[in-house]
Amino acid sequence: MPQVKQINHVAIVVDDMEQALSFWRDALGMEVAELRDVPAEKSQVAFLPLRDSDVELVRPASADSGIAKFLAKRGPGLHHVCLEVDDIEGLLAQLHAKNIRLINEQPRIAADGKRYAFIHPESAGGVLVELYQI
Amino acid sequence: MPQVKQINHVAIVVDDMEQALSFWRDALGMEVAELRDVPAEKSQVAFLPLRDSDVELVRPASADSGIAKFLAKRGPGLHHVCLEVDDIEGLLAQLHAKNIRLINEQPRIAADGKRYAFIHPESAGGVLVELYQI
To answer: Which residue of A8, A14, A28, B97 pairs with A20 in a disulfide if CB–CB is 3.0 to 4.6 A?
Structure first.
């Protein structure tokens, strides 16, 4: 049976990266490991690693990105939770068999080789859930 | 300096616990360690532990609870992220000094002895952040 191992990260939509960093980095004292533009997703991302999980801050860099639409509709705040799994293909097949609506029926492959897929919030009680296999 | 150590849990508001469990437990295969009523918070809570972090499902048991108001306003979905810290008093003092708006200026003490406090979403880019010291 495929298993969910841990929370890999929690992603947060921000409208102003410097303002967000003034909270997460300067006030909470968390370290920013990486701050970079992601042109493929028309966004800017900051990674703040913790022991086993990251906090990710995502700022839309273009008004036509998915993240910009989320921001316009819901405002800044929690965006998705990412679960690390040990067998993403097996879990997607299991979810499919249980009629869970998937945004990605097959894993997508990130630039760093990680496989990931999103579950539709409609099947997850309004939560956007990402699955990740490292 | 007080430090944020890890994500302790991610809390999710649900309107129907059985429906939520059919996703998190039955479809994703996560284990439910505990399912109980929390009369003091007029809610029912399910804990689904992962390696270092939990997923918590919270269902309002009364229409006048804070969680019921959140559900009415925002719908079901991600509610808050809880960060485990090593010095909650020190971190609250640091946040206060940086003019971060706190819901709890002093830690509250849970039935099991854990100290916790919430940061106001207004100072955290729309995210409800809980701090936890175990």
So the answer is: A14
